[in-house]
């Protein structure tokens, strides 16, 4: 029995197109509330990330790292329900045997169904508050987003629409700078917009930009990042292009530069990484708030940190821009948003 429902086209297009799958993990005992609380308690506390964010999902930079201090899993779940938080248990498959077994099963299935080899994978468990969001960005690895609980609106943009520059994506590959991709709401005209529901998994081509807005309920999702030989090659080409631009004044283009040069770029990237890699200006995230153990969901901002304040009429209606029957529509073709309003929710 497979974890995902496969079709011939899904097998063929896996990793190359936007694809929607159904899965049966939503009712797995692995992700019941009690199991999630135990998982948080087992997870290394120093690796647990707690974030909060502003209220406009189109604005970059309103994203604060916080401290969970000694709150246990049950208290953190209460805080997520009551507050505006994004818990990230990064790479949980590397520390938890049950999640590792699941992850191994997923990639064994992908290999069987598609022939695709996976070189490395990181499963992040995301537990996030009602109406929380993640702004427009792109990831260097391949991504699968598995929805376990709640509904989140996923805005998925074409990778080849000119919505980011070569220099910008190279900067992300080099970890040169904060992953700020300028976003304008007109991009939504070319977005695939889907309300991702429990039992669905969405995957997209490498580097496709995306942003996410939760519905008015707690969300539990698995964000699985992985690299195939092809995607790792591509990531190293981006890395080398970034070095060529920054160290040698070149102006490479990942789409237009000769493929013949790529083996040399791979060598350049590997040598640079072996000598410590590119030293960028990425701002280390500093903690800016603590959770208040006595008031679930309340934030104690550090001195001098501007607090995020909700706008009037918060929260806004969630599903104003998505057809009610969107899950019936094919997802391997981009779907146009029905609105281009400045605020997508
Ligand atoms: Fe992402």
Description:
This protein is α+β, with helices and mostly antiparallel strands and 345 residues long. The protein has a domain at 8-164 and 173-227 and 288-301: Cupin (Jelly Rolls, Sandwich). Helix content is 25%, strand content 23%. The protein contains seven helices and 14 strands. The chain has helices at 8-13, 33-42, 73-82, 97-114, 166-173, 229-248, 262-274; strands spanning 19-22, 48-53, 63-67, 85-89, 120-128, 133-137, 142-149, 152-156, 192-196, 200-204, 210-214, 219-227, 287-291, 299-301. The strands form two sheets. Strands 1-10-7-12-5-4-2-3-13-14 form a ten-stranded mixed β-sheet. It has a four-stranded antiparallel β-sheet with strand order 6-11-8-9, with no helix packed on it. Helix 2 (33-42) packs across helix 3 (73-82) and helix 6 (229-248) packs across helix 7. The longest helix has 20 residues, at 229-248. It is globular and about 60 Å long. The model is unreliable at 319-330 and 332-345 (pLDDT under 50). The structure holds fe (ii) ion (FE2). The site of fe (ii) ion has 4 residues, from loops. Fe (ii) ion (FE2) binds next to loops.
């Amino acid at each position: 029995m497979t974890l995902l429902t496969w079709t011939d086209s899904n097998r063929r297009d896996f990793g190359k197109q936007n694809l929607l799958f159904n899965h049966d993990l939503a009712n797995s005992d692995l992700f019941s509330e009690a199991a999630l609380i135990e998982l948080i308690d087992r997870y290394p506390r120093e690796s647990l990330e707690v974030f909060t964010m502003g209220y406009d999902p189109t604005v970059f930079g309103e994203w604060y790292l916080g401290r969970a201090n000694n709150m246990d899993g049950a208290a953190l779940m209460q805080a997520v329900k009551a507050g505006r938080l994004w818990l990230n248990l990064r790479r949980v498959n590397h520390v938890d045997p049950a999640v590792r077994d699941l992850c191994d099963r997923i990639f064994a299935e992908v290999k069987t169904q598609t022939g695709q080899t996976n070189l490395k994978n990181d499963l992040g468990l995301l537990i996030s508050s009602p109406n929380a969001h993640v702004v427009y960005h792109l990831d260097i690895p391949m991504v699968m987003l598995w929805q376990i609980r709640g509904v989140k609106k996923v805005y998925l943009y074409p990778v080849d629409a000119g919505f980011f520059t070569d220099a910008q994506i190279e900067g992300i590959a080099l970890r040169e700078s904060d992953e700020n991709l300028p976003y304008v709401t007109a991009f939504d005209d070319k977005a695939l917009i889907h309300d991702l529901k429990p039992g669905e998994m969405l995957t997209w081509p490498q580097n496709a930009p995306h942003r996410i807005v939760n519905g008015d309920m707690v969300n539990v999702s698995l964000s699985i990042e992985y690299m195939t030989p092809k995607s790792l090659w591509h990531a190293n080409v981006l890395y080398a292009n970034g070095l060529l631009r920054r160290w040698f004044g070149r102006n490479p283009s990942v789409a237009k530069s000769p493929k013949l040069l790529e083996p040399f770029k791979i060598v350049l990237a590997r040598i640079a990484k072996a000598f410590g890699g590119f030293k960028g200006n990425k701002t280390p995230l500093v903690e800016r708030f603590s959770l208040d153990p006595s008031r679930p969901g309340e934030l104690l901002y550090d001195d001098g940190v501007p607090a995020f304040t909700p706008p009037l009429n918060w929260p806004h209606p969630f599903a104003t821009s998505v057809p009610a029957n969107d899950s019936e529509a094919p997802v391997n073709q981009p779907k146009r948003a029905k609105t281009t309003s400045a605020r997508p929710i």
